[in-house]
Structures are given as C-alpha cells and as structure tokens.
Amino acid sequence: HWMCVPIIPFLSKRLGADPVMFGYLQTAAGLAQLIGGPLLGWLVDVRGARYALIVSQLAGALSYLCLALAWTVPMLFLSKIPTIFQHALQAAQMCVTLMSDVENRPKMIARLSLYYGVGFVVGPAIGGGLSNLLGESGQQTVALIAAAISFVCVWVNLTYLPALYAHEFSAKSEVGKASPNEGQVDSAGEGDRKDAAGPASGAVKERAFADMFTMVLRPGLRNLLLFSLMVGLALSSYYTGISLAAEPQFGMSEKGLGTLMSFVGALSMIVNAVGIPFLSTYFPRQAIVYFSMALMAVSLSLLSLATDTVRLYLLLIPLVVSMAIFRAYSVSLISTAVPTEEAGSAISLAHAAQSLSGVVAPAVSGHVFRNLGFPVLCLG
C-alpha cells in the first residue's frame, strides 16, 4: 500500500487529472472504504479475523493490478473499486484484540502499529525511488510489485496464522470465569466442539449483522465514533493537502514525497515503541486520547506556517506524535466498549467513521487548495 501512495498524485497528474479531480479520486477511495468497512467487520465476527485479513489482502492485490494497467483517469477510479474490501489494518487490529487482554491491548496495538510503521517507512521510499529511477513506466511497475507482495502476504497468512474466531474467544473467557476447571473444556472431543460452535456461530452471525448499525446508539461507543469521525476529517484534509502541495509548493518529486512519508513512518515507530508504553504506565487511557486530539488540532493549525521543506518536516513532528497516540488508544477503547464477540464490528464502525470523512474531506480539500491555498486548508 505505502509503495503506491507517493506515485498516485503524480500518475493522476500525468493522466490529466487536476487537483479537484484528484480530490474526487480520494473521495472515491473513501467511499469504497466506507461501504466495505462494516461488511468486513461483520466477516471478522462471523468467519474469523484471518479470513477477513486474507480477503483484504486479495482486494489490495487486485487494486494494485488495476492501477498498474491504468492509462486514463477513469481507470484510476476503477482501481478503487476493489478497495471496498481492502481493510488489512482493521483485520490485523482484530487479530491483536483477540490475542491480548484488556490491560496489555494498547501496548499490543502499538506494537502492531510499530510493524505497520516499518512498511510506512520503507514502502514510500522504495515506491518513490523506483518510480524516479524507472521513468514513466516506473509508476505502473511499482503497482505490479505491490500486487506481488500482497499475494505473498496471502500465502503467509494461510500457512501460519490461526483462524481466530471472536465467539470462541468470548466463550472461553466466559467458561474461565464460570468454572475453575478449564481442563474439562480443553479435553472436549473435536466433534463436541464443532457441535457447540455451530449454533453459536449462527447466533453471532445473526446478531452481528442485525445489530451492526444499532451499536452506534450505545452512548460509550457513540462518543468514541464521533471522535474518530472528527479526527478522520482533519487527517483526510491533511493527507490530501500534502499530496497536492508536494510539487507546486514544496518542490517535491515522487522520491521527495516518498521520503517525507518515510520520515512520518519512522517517527510513528518511535512513538509506538517508546511513547505508548510510557503513557500506558502513568496515565489513564481516556485522558491520553483527549490529549492526542488537542495536540493534533494545534499541530494542524501550525502546519499552515510551513513555507519550505525544512519547516514542513519540523511542523509534522507534533502532528505525527498525536496521530500515533490517538490510533493506538482509540482502537483499544473501542474494542473494550463492546463484548468480545462484537469487537470486530465496533472496530469496523470506527474505520467506517474515518472512511466517511474520507468521502467528504478530499473533494472539499481539492477546491480549497485550488482556490485558497495550502495554509487555509490546514487551518480549516
């Protein structure tokens, strides 16, 4: 994914898309994510986290293949259709949620973000560098490489990752609380486990699908989703603004934009490796989330002062810190606001809230950037 991010603004420009059209392209991507996020969350709760992760990676591979074959702007929009099911981070967060307890969950999600940050650091640098090195054909070549990597990830997960069903983890937790003798459960026959899991799976499926959107009305979850939506609006505007301003305002090429994104990824890794464990030890989770949102608001406002590349790098530091903190703790809070068997749906609703912002913000940002410039976009 991150290999392709720095090449898309330049590929869209080469194919004839102006800033407003690029904003529409980003909106199309946000709409696809909005449609598919809740569906994938339901798949996590019903078919298992590994199943959803593999579906996400296959969808990503198909999207990159379409991008590699794009020769017109409509083809760029076509490449966004498979991203309806491309939610690998969401599925991976659910895997971590199922394999960790409540107290250690922020640290484990931060560790996942740390590994995800490795891709954030290496991917843009490789994608932007290869695109520059190979010339006009470089952008499509990078997309083909991204597709191949996605297929390798599918094979790895099929081979080494367990299924991870949410309702089984919930059932084990309940049995552990109800009975001190867990050995009787573990020694049950395979046929008995299948018989017990069958009706339970059906019940989870019916409840998860029917109650997916009524979950939004629960007060605790509703407030967290509103936070995710507001943060998503701000970050979608930021991502669109950086992509549009990279060349005209900061003089960046694909390689320069890739290097910038690698810097953001490296800083995120440091925050996840050092900052999250420190904050988890001394401060309550909810206070940390509020702090990260306040820091993010101030950072986005200061970003309007960036007039050259050096200032841009410096002003991005507090913004990236706030983003990393918010992502780790918001997922942890959302996953604990509902029962374990509904955690996949809850996390998917949070991603859907951010995707909703991705539908609105990029198109508006394109107009604001073209008519008012980058500083006004950051202040907005």
Description:
80% of the residues lie in helices and 0% in strands. It is built from 16 helices and no strands. The longest helix has 30 residues. The two termini are 28 Å apart. About 10% of the residues have low confidence.
Give the key terms.
380 residues, 16 helices, 80% helix, 0% strand
Outline the fold blueprint.
Blueprint: H1 8-14, H2 19-47, H3 49-68, H4 73-78, H5 88-99, H6 105-134, H7 138-160, H8 166-178, H9 183-186, H10 190-210, H11 219-245, H12 254-282, H13 285-302, H14 309-336, H15 343-372, H16 374-379
Alpha-beta content class = mainly alpha
Would you report the number of β strands?
A: 0
How many H/I helices? 16
The largest sheet is:
none
Oligomer: single chain
- The backbone outline, from C-alpha atoms, is globular
* Beta-strand fraction estimate: under 5%
Q: Would you list the SSEs in sequence order as H and E? A: HHHHHHHHHHHHHHHH
Q: Give the low-confidence spans.
A: 171-208
Report the end-to-end length measured between terminal Cα atoms: 28 Å
Task: Determine Rg (CA atoms, Å).
Answer: 21 Å
The share of residues in helices is over 70%
Compute the average pLDDT.
77
